[in-house]
Amino acid sequence: QVQLAEFGGGSVQAGGSLKLSCIASGRSYNKYYSMGWFRQAPGQKREGVAFIDSDGRSTYAENVRGRFTISKDNTKNTLYLQMNSLKPEDTAMYYCAAGRYVADAFLDREYSDWGQGTQVTVSS
Fold it and tell me: Residue 88: left (phi > 0), alpha (psi -120 to 50), or beta?
């Protein structure tokens, strides 16, 4: 299927920035996939963060809108998440996800493939 690998996590102070990347590979992957970022903090449910469809249309969770930007480079099969003005509550494991037929981007069951995750830690 599709293999996804996330990079770019790390530890930053509140107000700082990080840029995550997700490289897609595998025989099933193509530009028609929708992709998204989810995150999960310890003891918390996994939540959707930002999504982008095959036409480049993006959707954001309300608590990251205006601070995070999702983008993709189809020539590199790479998804990005630019995170600015980071807050301690953004601390979580961030996961990249891909799906061929995504109707409701916030439902994790819509996605068929997932990365291993990259840790983001924001200190106050």
Answer: alpha
